[in-house]
Amino acid sequence: MVDDGHVEQELPPLDTLAARLEYLFDKIRPTTEELSASDEPGRRYTNKEIADKINRTAAETGVTISAAYIGELRRGVASDPRTSHVRALAFAFGVNSGYFVDDAAARRIQEQITLLSELRRMDVKQVALRQVLADNGLSAGDTQLIEQMVARLRAVAEGASPGSSGAAPDDRS
């Protein structure tokens, strides 16, 4: 098998709390509802925005956090946050709190974030095809070959002259 571990090889190691938190800042983006009219879509969260997100729910959760403390966690200056802060950070980014303390959970969430990024970047149908092929035991190389074949077939179909019945160009009646 050529490249079955393709996705895992591309994932950066998440061996510290700072690395895990920085990964979330790097990959998770504010929703359109969280952006103001002057904000650029796709930009990263700021420490203050995550702190504000956590602090808005302080009445229900009892948890508050400062942007400065989030910055210290990201840099590794602070590395032993309270459990309530870990839960609040996880909630703010929309991940399970196990992400910060469990290597297997971190890897799963990292793979899910990678898949979501692919879904946004590519045609969802192509990602679904990839998943079906992987679920059926095809290697990454075989999957890529099939994707190329599908892309070529699409190009041929789109190249058919307008008004044709959709038959291949060599089909003559």
Q: What is the element layout, followed by pairings?
A:
Layout: H1 6-10, H2 17-27, H3 47-56, H4 58-61, H5 67-75, H6 83-93, H7 103-121, H8 124-135, H9 140-158
Low-confidence regions: 1-9, 161-173
Main beta sheet strand tally, sense and closure: none
Tally of helical segments: 9
- Helical content stands at 55-70%
**What fraction strand?**
under 5%
Between the first and last Cα atoms, what is the distance in angstroms? 44 Å
Order of helices and strands: HHHHHHHHH
* Gross morphology: elongated
Overall mean pLDDT? 81
CA-based gyration radius: 22 Å
Number of strands: 0
Computed structural class: mainly alpha
Structure description:
With 173 residues, this protein is mainly α. Helix content is 58%, strand content 0%. Mean pLDDT is 81; it is low at 1-9 and 161-173.
